[in-house]
Design brief:
Order of helices and strands: EHEEEHEHEHEHEEHHEEEEEEH
CATH class of the largest domain: Alpha Beta
Number of helices: 8
Helix content: 10-25%
Strand content: 25-35%
CATH architecture of the largest domain: 3-Layer(aba) Sandwich
Distance between the termini: 57 Å
Mean pLDDT: 93
Low-confidence stretches: none
Largest sheet: 7 strands, mixed
Radius of gyration: 23 Å
Amino acid sequence: MKAIFYGSPQLAVPFFSLVLRCCQVVAVVTQPDRPSGRGMLPKPTPVKVLADSKGIRVFQPHKISEIIAELSALRADLAVIVAYGKILPPEALAATLKGNLNVHFSCLPKYRGAAPIAWSLMRGEQRTGVTCFWVDAGMDTGPIQRLAEISIAPEDDAVSLTQKLSELGLWTLSVCLSDIEAGRIFREAQRGEPSLAPKLKPEDRVIAWDMPAEAILNRVRALAAGPPASLRLQGGPINVFRARLGDMKPAHSARPGAVVDIEAGKGFLVQCQTGKLWILEVQPGGKKRMPAAAFLNGLHLKKGDTLR
């Protein structure tokens, strides 16, 4: 099969490699080079780097409408889309013969949008998965070729869950490509209650201690891949990468945000609206990630102090 691959970040590279093994890739569409580093020099996307190494034609349009004629002239059988970063207009969708297959990291119709992994964790879901679906004019609303589910472990965060879903997604896409090659094309309508997973905003990072401890922990897990959850300590922002639930017993007279325990070699325990949360790994401004216990060395934090 002749295929066009749409993708941009490192997450998409293993999927691009799979499509290269299974199809004749006639073109790649990826995001434009962006300034990066101290010199702010243009940096290609990881997908472009691989495409260039294979001698594959690369398109980097600011608007897809700029390349519709070129895409149509390729007469590709299908397009595979993984974390491309832009919505395809109807003219681009019509440029392939069989359709445009998107690999999405949730069980559609749940968590349609840009950040399904983060929102699955933020909402405390116990199961998620990968959906390979045929793109239509809506936002992740198209019919399903194949869906696969997995459980979310209590210790999973955005980093570990992304790895698990990537592995599941590669297997799912491989099966889909084999089925499509053999003429087994399925277009099953999405079923169930839809929900949205929009791009995260800066305010989604803020830890508010008047939330339940479990909700704050889910926020830390959801943002572990960065930008991370953040609290304020002694006037400055502190990124939080790892936390753990404490006991659910109410602390006498302790208000949300109060430090109720400090343990050497572990971290500090904070009272939430309900329950308590151990802060275990942090990143102070301008410094590297470190265990909370190491951060506490030399910091004048004591029981009863209140975090803002």
